[in-house]
Write a structure and sequence with these properties.
The chain has one domain. The protein is mainly α. Helix content is 55%, strand content 12%. The protein is elongated. Strands 2-1-3 form a 3-stranded antiparallel sheet. The chain contains 4 helices and 3 strands; from the N terminus they run E-E-H-H-E-H-H. Helix 3 runs antiparallel to helix 4. The structure holds zinc ion (ZN). The site of zinc ion has 7 residues, from strand 2.
Length: 119
């Protein structure tokens, strides 16, 4: 039995994989929310440009991961001889959204889907 996943706002267990919204707080810390709770949290964040709390497990997160992967690969291939320092920095920056997306899947989405798989 997997560890239950609790919403970061209402602290209730998230049982439906389609009701899961994973948010990267400040682009660093992953927090799970119910979709409705995320809507409320998003409304209260007037300073959202500072907190950067965008959903990781929906379209914006997928697009960011794809663009990050492309940026990381291009930096690794094109800049590694000309400017190794810049290549390492851009590669790490590019792979960060990919790491967030993979972490969201491994920590929250996959266990939830396994737990609530139809019999
Ligand atoms: Zn909630």
């Amino acid at each position: 039995m997997a560890k239950p996943i609790h919403c970061a706002k209402c602290y209730q267990e998230i049982t439906d994989p389609h009701d899961l919204m994973v948010v990267a707080k400040l682009g660093l810390v992953l927090r799970p929310y119910h979709t409705s709770c995320y809507g409320e949290v998003e409304k209260t964040l007037a300073h959202q440009w500072l907190t950067e709390s965008r959903p990781v497990n929906h379209r914006p997160g997928n697009v960011a991961a794809l663009l990050g992967l492309l940026l990381g690969l291009l930096a690794m291939l094109l800049l590694r001889r000309a400017s190794p320092g810049a290549a390492i920095l851009l590669t790490l920056l590019g792979f960060w959204p990919v790491a967030l997306r993979v972490s969201s899947y491994a920590l929250f989405e996959r266990p939830l889907r396994r737990e609530h798989r139809p019999a």
